[in-house]
Write the structure tokens for this entry.
Amino acid sequence: MASLRRRRSLFPFLVILFLSFFLSTFSSPIPDGSSHSHQLSTLPGFLHERKLLQTAEAPTEASSHSSTTLILAANRTRRKDPLNDFKYYEGGWNITDPHYLYSVSYSAAPPIIVAMFWFIFFGIYLCCVCIWRCCCCGRLKPHGYSPAAYIASLLFLILITVTAIVGSIILFEGQAEFEMSVADIISYILHKADYVIETLQSVFNYLLSAKNIGIGPLTLPPDLLGTIQFTQNNINAVADNLHKVTGASSEDISNLLTPLRIPLIHVTAFMLALVIFGFFLSLGGMQCLVYFLLVVGWIAVTFVFVASGLFLLVHNAVEDTCVAMDDWLLNPNAHSALESIIPKADNQTARTILMDTKQITFALVNETNTAITNVFNADMQPSAGPLFFNQTGPHVPVLCMPLNANLTEVPCLTGEVNFTNASEVWKGYVCEVSTTGICITPGRITPEAYTELISSLNVSYALYEYGSFLVDLVDSTYVKETFMDISNNFCPSLRHSTKMMCVGFIMVAAASMLSLISWMSYGRERRRRKYAMKRMNQFPPPPPLPPKGYYIGGRGKY
């Protein structure tokens, strides 16, 4: 029986040693298994909704795309792929690729495997303890009390409880920072997308206004009106695609991460309460309740290890995404999987919108200058009909033409007015008119013609100013700025918060596991101490012997 008690006292420490060895084993690369076919498991619903890949691509297909698609975070995402016989995944960051999704999920396997072995082996141990307590507890008495072992078990119990509390604090701090970071990044992506969509809508509205622009008898030619309609259709297509993809990305992030808050908060709070409650019950010697908490804790620790695996997956996915953004910023013109988050505008479509907008700007300015030169500055006779309104006085300066006929930039000429001061300059050439629309004071522009000039000026100026935005749309500057801001301003906090959560979960899981063991260890030492104190009270030690050379009941020496 003594050997049985020694083996039983060593079992908790053997369990700890075994779990540590197993964790380190599964953290190392796993040899390739034999080739066999795999069935592709069902992907999360949000991937199906976004019409992402449904089947795994063969490695040769991935390599064939590598010449046209930038492989992102290639070194970091090189993990074992369960869908490909546990060979290394080489496709880089790509949330649309099931191989990437399963490889990053596989990186969270160690805590889940530890949870499985904990559940099995500690469950077997609890069964053995129950059998031993039921069969032998009534016949065997605790003995072998050691004050040093009692103090050590008590200090270990206190240390583990404090560790669980610290881990919970780290976990809650990381969770608060993570929620704030996710909310900020979703808000930023939506704000950036809204800015682009609103600007495109403004261009759309100015193009709509350009259809109705006319100065006197001059209007835009029919072929240019068709160009305006075509450009509006392209703008709608770009804006709709951007709105759908960024909206879906933000919704997917929220739908994927928000449910994780429930196990994070509830499981952590429950484990913290369990550890603290078990600590006080152990100190109070309420062994029946401690045994009940051991069973509850056995199951709860399993869930905590599983939850730590889930957040290890989140941490790895966040790290992968941030590294992928950094890689893309080094080669921003290449196509990449990041377009599934914030899409680049189709280069040809964006370039067509830019050139058409320049063409319309050129036509509007040309129409304005034609009216000024051939109508307002011409000394018409009454026989000219509607073109005559008694225009007199100095000539009206023409508007600066910012574009050549080939739609390249050109500086203003001397004597031309620019977009910013044209309205004020032309106001000085407006005359007063009679009821028939004839100038009765010196001037070359009637109030009605001035209104038409200003309408044309505003539309052409707006379209010209939006040219820089459209250039950014062509070369994807807005995408580069977005990813650069996310990489510099949001990724550090995301990385830090997910790392804190992983550390906190591991601390809570390990401390909870050790707490169960420390409850048993301290309870055993407490029973031994209690039994030893009881024995001392029942059988007090004999009085010390008198010094040698004296006899009892006598006086002095022999």
